[in-house]
Amino acid sequence: MSSLSFTAFPSALLRTSWSIPFLPSLRDLIPPFLLAVPKKKVSHSRKAMRSANKGLKDKQNVVHCPGCGSAKLAHHLCPHCYSSINRAWKKVTNYGSEVPP
């Protein structure tokens, strides 16, 4: 009698033996942060209010160069002195070992 029950319901055996692997849904494939979008356009005034505190700040670390006296940032090379040294160095390398005045 047990052999009759298996032959009478072959579809029950096929369902368990032919299982399809789980396919994730579209919501599982896309990360949630890609679905986050604003509901309305941000107005110009709200955008300006949000960016009002992002303005330029005044530099507090401006000092005088001890070599030439021009303004420079503290702990940085003086651009004026650097350009004069660079010009002199290029003259030395281009014309040989002569030191320019």
Features:
101 residues; mainly alpha; single chain; two-stranded antiparallel ribbon; Ribosomal_zn-bd; 2 strands; 5 helices; Mitoribosomal_protein_bL32
Helix and strand arrangement:
Blueprint: H1 2-8, H2 10-17, H3 26-29, H4 44-50, E1 62-64, E2 71-73, H5 79-95
Antiparallel strand pairs: 1-2
In short:
By secondary structure, the protein is mainly alpha-helical.
Description:
The chain is built from five helices and two strands, in the order H-H-H-H-E-E-H. The protein is elongated. The protein has a two-stranded antiparallel ribbon with strand order 1-2. It has helices at about 1-10, 10-15, 25-30, 45-50, 80-95, and strands at about 60-65, 70-75. The chain starts with a helix and ends in a 6-residue tail after the last helix. It is mainly alpha-helical and about 100 residues long. The model has no long low-confidence stretch (mean pLDDT about 80). InterPro entries: Mitoribosomal_protein_bL32, Ribosomal_bL32, Ribosomal_zn-bd.
> What coarse outline follows from CA principal-axis ratios?
elongated
Distance between the termini: 117 Å
Structural class: mainly alpha
Uncertain stretches of 5 or more adjacent residues:
none
Give the tally of β-strands.
2
Using only CA atoms, what is the Rg? Answer: 39 Å
Query: If strands are numbered along the chain, what order do they take across the biggest sheet?
Result: 1-2
Average pLDDT for all residues? 79
The helix count comes to: 5
In terms of DSSP E residues, the strand content is 5-15%
Query: Percent of residues in helical segments?
Result: 40-55%
Q: How is the main sheet built? A: 2 strands, antiparallel
The arrangement of helices and strands along the chain is HHHHEEH
Subcellular location: Mitochondrion
Keywords: Mitochondrion, Ribonucleoprotein, Ribosomal protein, Transit peptide
Organism: Lactarius akahatsu
Family: Belongs to the bacterial ribosomal protein bL32 family.
